[in-house]
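Service request form, structural biology core

Requester: graduate student, group of Dr. S.
Request type: structure prediction, single chain
Budget code: on file
Notes: please return the result as structure tokens.

Sequence provided:
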Amino acid sequence: MRRFLKVVAALIEAEGRFLLCQRKDGDEQAGLWEFPGGTVEGNETLFSAIEREIKEETALSVKAWQVVERFIDESPDYVIEVFLCRCDILGGKIWARDCKDFGFFTLKEAEKLDLVSVDLKILKYLSRRKSNT
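Core staff response, request fulfilled:
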């Protein structure tokens, strides 16, 4: 039986660069890069979930204010519904609290990273959107 998950991913942009985190050793798909985020728990809203996840992963306080797009990732074992949420940094000093590493990357730089499959979809979406502006 396939599992269904509702997940949030943060779109945090600074000077044309996007925050990406590398999954830590021991995590599923360890070493791969992703837009930071995680599973929506219980009765959380999308925004409260992404704000909590970013605090847990990077120690940053953020304010989520827009659902940019929705993505679906499927395998034989699961269906993941991912909501990309635009967030602004409110404060805090970033560090790899619950990830192996992090960085701010341009779209071109991010294309060279090994990304989680759904994050490849997000990156392609952002690249298309940028070329249309």
